């Protein structure tokens, strides 16, 4: 644990990235950005994102234009954020842990982000699919795996 903290202080693993909504009213700067992300096929994500929801964990995030950032509570444990001007989806926020999952497409540069898993695979419509070999968790698997975040 000491070693990990030391590395963070030295900045080697402080993977910082910026991003914004479509109109630029909301900017963000995130630290400790996880480059491996998952796709969610749950019904709420389908409605919120227009299809597949792609988001990645960040250690911390600072917003500029926060007055244009709208937060919508979608469950007892989470809220989602979007730009109040252009409507672009920006994040999923786990309230208990204060953990942000930023929308992959909102980052300025996503070329080195890699999709490494799918969740709620049994909610995915049959008409499309993500190619590649990676874990695909069912709704039951997903809820079991992430119960610590929701209870
Ligand atoms: Zn906007
Ligand atoms: Zn979802």
List the defining traits of the structure above.
151 residues, alpha+beta, Metal Binding Protein, Guanine Nucleotide Exchange Factor, Chain A, seven-stranded mixed β-sheet, three-stranded antiparallel β-sheet, 4 helices, 10 strands, binds zinc ion
Q: How many whole angstroms does the radius of gyration measure?
A: 16 Å
| Class from helix and strand fractions | alpha+beta
Helix content estimate: 10-25%
Shape: globular
Ligand inventory reads: zinc ion
What fold name goes in the CATH topology slot? Answer: Metal Binding Protein, Guanine Nucleotide Exchange Factor, Chain A
> In which order are the strands of the major sheet placed?
6-7-8-9-4-3-10
| Quantity of strands, as a count | 10
Q: Return the CATH architecture.
A: Beta Complex
Low-confidence stretches: 1-11
User: Would you tell me the overall average pLDDT?
Assistant: 91
Tell me the series of helices and strands, N- to C-terminal.
Answer: HEEEHEEEEEEEHH
Task: Give me the number of helical elements.
Answer: 4
Number of structural domains: 1
Briefly characterize the structure:
The protein is α+β, with helices and mostly antiparallel strands.
Account of the protein in words:
- The protein has four helices and ten strands.
- By secondary structure, it is α+β, with helices and mostly antiparallel strands.
- It has one domain: Metal Binding Protein, Guanine Nucleotide Exchange Factor, Chain A, CATH 2.170.150.70.
- Strands 6-7-8-9-4-3-10 form a seven-stranded mixed beta sheet. Strands 1-2-5 form a three-stranded antiparallel beta sheet, with no helix packed on it.
- The longest helix is centred in the N-terminal third of the chain and has 9 residues, at 2-10.
- Mean pLDDT is 91; it is low at 1-11.
- One zinc ion (ZN) is lined by residues 40, 42, 44-45, 53, 120.
- One zinc ion binds at residues 40, 42, 44-45, 53, 120.
């Amino acid at each position: 644990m000491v070693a990990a903290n030391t590395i963070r202080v030295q900045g080697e693993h402080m993977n910082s990235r910026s991003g914004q909504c479509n109109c630029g009213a909301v900017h963000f700067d995130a630290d400790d950005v996880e480059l491996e992300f998952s796709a969610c096929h749950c019904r709420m994500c389908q409605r919120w994102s227009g299809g597949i929801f792609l988001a990645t964990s960040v250690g911390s995030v600072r917003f500029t234009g926060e007055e244009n950032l709208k937060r919508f509570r979608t469950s007892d444990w989470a809220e989602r954020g979007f730009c109040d001007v252009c409507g672009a989806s920006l994040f999923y926020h786990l309230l208990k842990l204060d953990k942000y999952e930023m929308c992959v497409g909102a980052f300025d540069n996503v070329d080195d982000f890699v999709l490494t898993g799918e969740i709620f695979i049994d909610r995915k419509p049959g008409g499309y699919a993500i190619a590649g070999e990676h874990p695909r968790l069912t709704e039951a698997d997903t809820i079991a795996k992430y119960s610590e975040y929701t209870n």
